[in-house]
Specification:
75% helix; 2 strands; UgpAE/MalFG_permease; 1% strand
């Protein structure tokens, strides 16, 4: 009996063959892209460029000019090139203010991060009612206008009628009539207390929001494996919230370096401006107070360069972490 040969079944195609060449698919998708997203973003990008770009360009041009009070009444400014910058390099007072500003910035940023992260960790373990009470207090402290809060703090540290001096005197310390704002060291202590108090809520809320996204399974697994509280925090919690900490730390360095309102109002309340100037108040007093707008613009550009230098490690770490992920 003769049998007809059986046809062999066609070979099964792999999933890659059925889907086609991924490279060709990606090329086709790229070819089908429309300019609509770019057109939608363009108006916002242009508005942002005008709002930020024009003041920056105007500041750069002004830093190369001799622009004083006479120029405000119509006299054309004189182009002096790099003279303003050469004068700044040889100004010893500017370097003292710069070192003072860097020290103030780093101390305040570190304290703010420590207190804010500590509060965020504590809020994870608080009862619901206590946590809501703490969060309400932090929100009120954060939302309070700067001038109003500075008025309260000035009253607390007042030389004659301040509550702080009264409490310290009751504890047996010799703080009767202590001039907190007249001495540079105690002036910056008061300024640090105020700046940290106003900045901690932002850090606490942001880090707490990151902690709420932390998977409980990771902590439970680490605890089962025998990891203590410090080990769990160092090897589980910190790596998880590290991106948030980097962003918050970057913002704190920028904000604390350009702090102005708190220092200026404390100086107006009795502090010595020359002994307590930071870069922000120095720029203001050099320009608005002294009428040297060209020099003030040069200091502002120097402050911008300093901000870039101080924040470069944060930005580099963030970019490296993003590339690794």
């Amino acid at each position: 009996m003769r049998t007809t040969p059986r046809r062999s079944a066609p070979p099964l195609r792999s999933s890659e063959e059925r889907r086609g060449d991924p490279g060709k698919a990606d090329t086709a998708r790229r070819g089908r892209r429309t300019p609509l997203p770019y057109a939608l973003v363009l108006p916002a990008a242009l508005a942002l460029a005008l709002a930020l770009g024009y003041p920056l360009v105007r500041q750069v041009v002004l830093s190369f000019q001799d622009f004083g009070l006479a120029q405000q009444f119509g006299r054309p400014p004189e182009w002096v090139g790099l003279r303003n910058y050469r004068d700044l390099v040889g100004d010893g007072y500017l370097w003292r203010v710069t070192l003072r500003s860097i020290a103030f910035c780093l101390v305040n940023a570190a304290l703010t991060m420590l207190v804010g992260v500590g509060l965020a960790l504590l809020m994870r373990h608080m009862a619901r009612g206590v946590r809501l009470l703490v969060q309400t207090g932090l929100l009120l402290a954060w939302a309070m206008p700067v001038v109003a809060s500075l008025t309260v703090w000035q009253w607390l540290f007042d030389t004659q009628y301040g509550v702080i001096n009264h409490l310290l005197t009751q504890l047996g310390l010799d703080y009767a009539g202590h001039p907190w704002l007249l001495r540079p060291l105690s002036f910056f202590f008061v300024a640090t207390v105020i700046v940290v108090w106003m900045s901690v809520p932002f850090v606490a809320f942001t880090v707490y929001a990151a902690l709420t996204q932390l998977p409980e399974e990771l902590l439970e697994a680490a605890e089962i494996d025998g990891a203590g509280a410090s080990s769990r925090f160092r090897h589980v919690v910190l790596p998880t919230i590290r991106p948030v900490l980097l962003v918050v730390g970057l913002l704190q360095v920028i904000w604390d370096l350009r702090v102005f309102t708190q220092i200026f109002l404390l100086q107006e309340a009795g502090g010595s401006a020359r002994d307590t100037n930071l870069l922000g108040t120095y720029i203001y007093r050099l320009g608005i107070g002294g009428g040297e707008f060209g020099m003030s613009a040069a200091v502002a550009m120097f402050m911008l360069a300093l901000t870039v230098v101080l924040t470069a490690p944060y930005v580099r770490t963030m970019l490296k972490q993003e590339a690794e992920t």
